[in-house]
Amino acid sequence: MNLASRALGLASLAFVALLWNGCSSNSTGSTTQPQATDPSQLDAPPSGQGVQLKTDLFGVPAGTEVQACYFFKVADLLKEGGMDPTKPLELHRVQMVIRNGSHHTSLAVQVGTNGTGQCFVSSNWSDWPLLANTQEQGDIDWSYPDGVANEIMPDETLMLQTHYVNAATQQTAAGLGQASIDLWGMDAAQVKYQMGTVFATNQAIRICEHNPTPTFGAGCQFKSNQPVTIVGANGHFHSRGKEFDMYTWDGTSTTTPPASDRFYKSVDWASPPMLHSPDLSVPVAAGGGFWWTCSYQWQDPSELTGGQDTCSTLNAVDAKKYMTPAAQQDCCYTFGGQVDLNEHCNAFVYYYPKQDDVNCF
Questions:
Q1: Among 149, 223, 270, 357, which is least packed, fewest CB within 10 Å?
Q2: How many CA atoms lie within 13 A of 30 on its CB side?
């Protein structure tokens, strides 16, 4: 299967930024509108309430994956909307609409690369603070709890990454991809807490022919003397994934917490639930965090891809990426971005108040 990764320059972006005039309300000040299901039909926020980021309509030919990355300079968005380019946008509401077939779409603050970089490399995301994410059929419209905002600074660059798959395990409707995101602001004077986000990956995963049903676990600790509240959660893996769970965690134990501490469960790898407030509000004690587990069922790659890929293909990936000796190769799916050949075990968590020290291991 072919995989294409595109990084699109700032000048080629389609975007709309609209003036936000500092509403006195704690909310966006908008009236409720029906959620669009086509990104080309998502209305931008009314003048004075937010900005819109929209990609072009791009092709995803059969048998391929396409990951496209778009970069938006926040100061340019502010200037385009007539806003003060020296002041931040206090993000309080997110709308995301994507064409059917997207493997995932994520929005992050890109740090230190000036609008360029390898957005397909998962390890880079540990340095890029997450703003929003959704998956295959995961259009969302989420207003944060009262007084909570995610501050976007004018000197930052936003990266919109959208990944479409039109191959064996997922298909892209009409072979076309597109994403649209509205970011709604709130009055800075009404902000009580900053939103924190965690994008955590467990890369020590191997789903092998002779160990076909493994479960892997990892944890992230909020290293703080104050409690936090988790208000958003989403899990992500590929087609070998059977169950994804998240739990509140004491920050020190090394085993999976009891079922009574579980706050997230997904058994649908292609369209995992995106839980968020007001339906999700999970307190975490000071010094605690969250634990997540990924359970898998190995699949014969030749059956999965109709003979296009075999165990030899997986062993070659294992040898090249991890330098695994031939005697230890076992037709293993390892961590990586290609949906048919690799696996993921990724947790997305949104919480407040934001903490400067979050340790994942």
A1: 357
A2: 25
